[in-house]
Amino acid sequence: MIIEAASTLFLILGAFFSLTGAVGLFRFPDFFTRVHAASVTDSAATIFIIFGLVLRTDFGLVAVKLLFILIFLLITSPTASHALAKSARHGGLLTLVETEATKKEDSD
Amino acid sequence: MVEFIDLVLLGMLAITAMRIIFLKDLFAVVMLFGIYSFLSALIFVNLDAVDVAFTEASVGAGISTVLMLGTLALTGRKEKVNSHTAWLPLIVVVVTGAALIYGTLDMPPFGDSNNPVQQHVAPRYIQDSPQEIGLPNMVTSVLASYRAFDTLGETAVVFAAAIGVLSLLGLPKQEKSAIESGLKSHLVLRVVAKLVIPLIILFALYVQFHGDYGPGGGFQAGVIAAAAIILYALVFGLPTAAHVIAPSLLKALAALGVLIYAGTGVASFFLGGDFLDYNVLASDPVAGQHIGIILIELGVGLTVFAAMLCIFYAFAAQAERTNIQ
Amino acid sequence: MLVLAATSIAILSVMALALARALKADTVYDRILGVNMFGTKTVLFIAAMGFLSGRPDFLDIAIVYALINFIGMVAVLRFFEYTATDDSPESSSTSEDQCR
Hints:
Radius of gyration of chain B: 23 Å
Strand content of chain B: under 5%
Oligomer: heterotrimer
Radius of gyration of chain A: 19 Å
Order of helices and strands of chain B: HHHHHHHHHHHH
Structural class of chain A: mainly alpha
Helix content of chain B: over 70%
Shape of chain A: elongated
């Protein structure tokens, strides 16, 4: 009973975090802020949803596979976001603050 | 519920396809093709075709994207603008398509269990496979035993593709003083790649040998193992990867895989059966089937691994050459 | 059961939003971000769908998606290292404007 309630709570929290991340992907003004929003879904939503699913099965092969997915996603998704942001920075993308600062300099 | 998800996925697929047609930036097209492949694999999962989804995910979203990006590194990134409008081809295509769709209206209803296609071999395979072969995954028993000859043809096709690419492009020569390339400045990525590559290879071995009991098999395992080495080559540079897995070894492995597969068939000859008849490989027919299936899956996995990696080496060596120049 | 269906629908809408971001992107990096997020959400979607339909064999496919997504991202970044000199986000966005 408690396990079912906990699983439901985790799944709902995971769905909530992923929805807020997706809305943030659209509403944030700048690329680097959008990376932050997307990585919220990659980390928080993944943890909650997978834990919610693990609580629904007994401890067997399925739970081990789910934990393996979780560990792999936790290692690789933040790395991919970090590498993407670093690559964008090296490619010359400016943050919102810097873009507005250069616009002010040009108009002065 | 299933139909609703199907509709949503197909809708997203159509939108992606329309956008791909009208984009002129080829890099964006490659990215959208990755999404397209993920979506088709999801549709296959929804249709309960798990092995097909496996193969589509690994080949379509993984290897195809990497190879297309390698090609884009050599050619330009922008598609040439069309100088003429395409009204006549559009009319021809619409008329032909309408005629074809009109022709399909005569076909039996989609997925009906009384269709002729479900009546001949499919019931026999489903009923007799547990006794004759004894594997839980019926897709593997059809692929590797009942239709083993077709799978031999597929393996030969993959081998021929590798030969074709090698004869056109050639493999990198192993030089002692190779320029070190790779993602030098991404330290986090290098550490994580070192952590993750053994896990991927382990997973590829799991898929290879677990293909009898769950989704998987030789083809998917070969592609995943090739993807692991491709990751190594991307992060640490092609010369380093060529030192680890030499191109000559790859050529030998590709041929060895096809040899194992056809050799199993010929061994059945010598033991008194037909070509690729596994019943004669051991005293007990079911044990013989198991031995035969393991052998040919090994052959398929080796050939696919070596062929994918050969093709990647050939493409990447071209890009390295132009980059160094 | 109902919670699983609701979670699946939520993840599906997140995927649709990520796809929309990949289709309509200001810079080329936004597109890559959309594809990356689509890939990771697909993993969760397959896990939830597998539980919903009672077939946990799907988890192998979910693992493959996670791997392939990561490898695709690394390939994209390597491609940018190769073509970093003649491609910048501004030029890619102007090409966007030309084709619309």
